[in-house]
Design a protein that fits this description.
Beta-Lactamase; 488 residues; five-stranded mixed sheet; five-stranded antiparallel sheet; Heat Shock Protein 90; alpha+beta; Helix Hairpins
Length: 488
């Protein structure tokens, strides 16, 4: 499996995303928990220190009475000092003794009546928290219980207080760190489990997503090799299924285009071979002097001329379409009467229709000249091609109907025949190059399938559109519109 495959990229992306989320969760969670537990520990120790300091301030304890009932943790160390920092009582440590000096760096804050908070390694070299609380002597009058409670709430009153020492409590932080470490270990197990589960899910998701794409890619390669019978059957999301159907439709379209291309090559080969054979054959007759009379020579020369003109027409059609699609032909816009142009075109095509007893009828609603703003020569070419096609595919003894009318600022022209029609299967391809549907009833007007492509290119070059409606065995109608001409 390639390292840059979409399956590996999807799997890696999902795993990295999950790991980032877990890592961030662990980082913020442990930081938050440590801060929370630490603050709670500070509050707890401060409360104990304040209880002891308050009791000492009221003379409820003397310095010889142990403070066992105030100690919540057997590992805590309690130190009581006087106003000069000399230890008057100590419990929980053998490293300090009564009468020693302690906490001189905190003494100024204590004398200002402030609490202190610091860290050290006083307890067996472990990280410890030290909390210091000043001892304030209370000159409490003899009040009733309610007044006493009010007094305790207002104990901060400076008039009734005098700082006589400090209470320091040192408590180890090891339990807190142990708790955080345990949480980290739990997160490690969660990491491992999440990686395993997410890996399986990521593999399934990436496989379900990449497998259809691999099938589509394989099908595209087959189409590129010319195998247009490739079919894709997918069971995936709606978007992937739609993409597969698009590839299938592309294969069908390319198959149709390939069929049209082959038909065109066959048609062109046939169309070119016939006039070239005539040219070669009659030219050899003239060169060899086999034409016995002047009338024979004239006849042969006329055939050569007709076949040469036929070849020129085919080449002109191909070059003309290429020039239009390349945009190298500039339209020469002018105002002209589409009514008059239709009548002239009918006169030109009528001899071809008369051969098969086909009548051409022109239906115009009123006497409007139907002035258009377009390239008259190009529109004439469009009409000739449409009427030629209509004659080509009409049944003998049938009719061709032409209608024109004005609607708002547009002039519409429709050409309808009652002939063989176009099948629903062929209809989407009629504008393609070299398309031919059926064979002409009159071999003299057989084409090579460029007429409709030229028509559509000319109409689109004017910024207009052309449509077609057809029913097999009933006939076909082409309609296009042009902008009407106005003086302003």
């Amino acid at each position: 499996m390639k390292h840059n495959s979409i399956m590996i990229k999807l799997w890696s992306g999902i795993i990295i995303t999950i790991l980032c989320i877990l890592f961030m969760s662990m980082f913020f969670q442990t930081r938050f928990l440590y801060s929370f537990y630490f603050n709670e520990k500070v509050k707890e120790v401060e409360k104990i220190g304040q209880d002891i300091a308050r009791a000492l301030g009221r003379n409820e304890y003397n310095f010889n009475i142990p403070y066992v009932d105030a100690i919540k943790n057997v590992n805590d160390m309690i130190i009581v000092t006087d106003i000069s920092g000399r230890i008057t009582y100590i419990t929980g440590s053998v490293d300090y003794k009564q009468g020693w000096v302690f906490g001189l760096k905190y003494l100024d804050d204590i004398l200002d009546g402030e609490k202190i908070q610091d860290g050290n390694k006083m307890l067996k070299g472990l990280d410890s928290l030290i909390i210091g609380v000043p001892i304030k002597r209370s000159q409490e009058p003899l009040w009733d219980v309610k007044q006493k409670q009010l007094y305790e709430n207002e104990i901060e009153s400076r008039a009734l207080q005098e700082i006589i020492g400090a209470v320091y409590i040192v408590t180890p932080l090891e339990p807190l760190e142990t708790t955080i470490q345990a949480i980290k270990i739990q997160f490690l197990y969660i990491f491992i489990g999440a990686i395993i589960i997410s890996s399986l899910i990521a593999l399934l998701l990436s496989h379900s997503f990449s497998d259809p794409l691999i099938k589509i890619n394989d099908a595209a390669k087959e189409i590129a090799r010319g195998n247009y019978n490739t079919k894709i059957h997918l069971k995936s999301s709606r978007e992937i299924i739609t993409l597969g159907e698009t590839i299938n439709n592309l294969a069908r379209q390319l198959s149709r285009v390939e069929q049209i291309r082959r038909e065109f090559i066959a048609n062109v080969s046939h169309e070119l071979r016939t006039p070239l054979s005539y040219l070669k054959g009659y030219t050899e007759i003239l060169i060899d002097g086999l034409a016995e009379t002047d009338s024979d020579r004239e006849k042969y020369l006329n055939i050569i001329l007709e076949e040469s003109e036929r070849l020129r027409k085919m080449v002109d059609e191909i070059l003309h379409l290429s020039q239009i699609e390349a945009g190298s032909i500039q339209l020469k816009l002018s105002s002209f009467s589409i009514d008059a142009l239709i009548k002239r075109t009918i006169d030109k095509i009528l001899p071809l229709a008369v051969k098969r007893d086909i009548s051409i009828k022109y239906n115009k609603v009123d006497d409007d000249l139907l002035l258009c703003l377009a390239d008259e020569n190009r529109i004439k070419q469009v009409l000739i091609n449409l009427l030629t096609n209509a004659t080509k595919h009409s049944y003998d003894h049938s009719n061709i109907l032409i209608s024109s009318y004005r609607l708002n600022d547009r002039i519409y022209i429709c050409v309808r025949d009652f002939g063989e029609g176009i099948s629903e299967e062929d209809l989407p391809f009629i504008w393609d190059r070299f398309y031919t549907a059926g064979k002409s009833k009159d071999k003299s007007i057989e084409g090579i399938g460029l007429g409709l492509s030229i028509i559509k290119s000319i109409i689109n070059a004017h910024g207009c559109d052309i449509t077609v409606n057809s029913v097999k065995e009933e006939g076909t109608e082409f309609c296009f519109w042009l902008p009407s001409y106005a003086e302003n």
